[in-house]
Amino acid sequence: MKPVSLERTKLYVRKHFRQIVGEILGPKPGHVDWLVDTGERRTTICGRQIEIWQLNPQDNEATLSAWAAHFRQHYISDEHLPLMVGGTGLTNAEYLRQTLLPDRTQPPGPSLRSGDFGEILVADYIEYVLGYWCPRELRYQGRWNRNDSTKGCDVIGFKFFADGQPHPGDELFVYETKSGMAPSNSNRLQDAITDSDKDKLREAMSLNAMKHKFVERGAMDNANRVQRFQNMADNPFRRVNGAVAILDDEVFEQTDLTIADASEHYNAANIQLIIIKGPSLMTLVHALYDRAADEA
Questions:
Q1: pTM of structure
Q2: From CA 291, how far away is CA 57, in angstroms rounded?
Q3: Deepest in the core among 86, 164, 255, 291, taking most CB within 10 A?
Q4: How confident is the model at residue 65, as a pLDDT?
Q5: Which residue range(s) make up the domain with 63?
């Protein structure tokens, strides 16, 4: 029998993985096409490459409306929305603005809006661009206080070498995100790197919380997918960390990315550094939240 080449094996695994993930994920949202790799790279003081991505929103009503619905569904499903609005005397839009979505003007609502926007955009990136399974809605649904951020790792993605038994080629991707949508003295990429180092302690608690929510919902297949990554010693896998800064174009131009240093990170050998920049991002954030409420 002719031996199977390594390349053919990789192609089979990629195809099989897409079939597995296709059962979990929906189609790629249209706004993801507005996120483009510029090809530009910067080098940090510690010699690591920073990828520069550009978010280019277009004046496309259908895509913006779908993006707002996608955004809203992180906080509550369309199925549950009328049930939760019932008895409150509020419209869907009023309920969302007063009960679920971070406040537009009252601190810390605006900063929470920009933070959630960045996390969700990065989750879209690792799910629809990189091909990881990223069950992120669990992070936002069920908040007791709409103006209080959810604790734990910002974005977690999973990639499986093949369905079935754990494989050392499986990957756990943990991203820390920081948004910078107004000029400040803070280097948001360095902030993301520094806080990413804390994920060494937060990872186990975040995975446990995610698994617990799946168990509560009776989604045992998903709970088992998370469980596969809870014991690296007995079931080895590859851990990848990421630090991402989502920056308004003006902030990007004022930030010296080259001084960022990830050399002391606990997973320094496997950390990815990314910038996502775009024009008038806070205006976009508020517009998405407005649509998310008004079109519910």
A1: 0.90
A2: 15
A3: 255
A4: 98
A5: 6-294
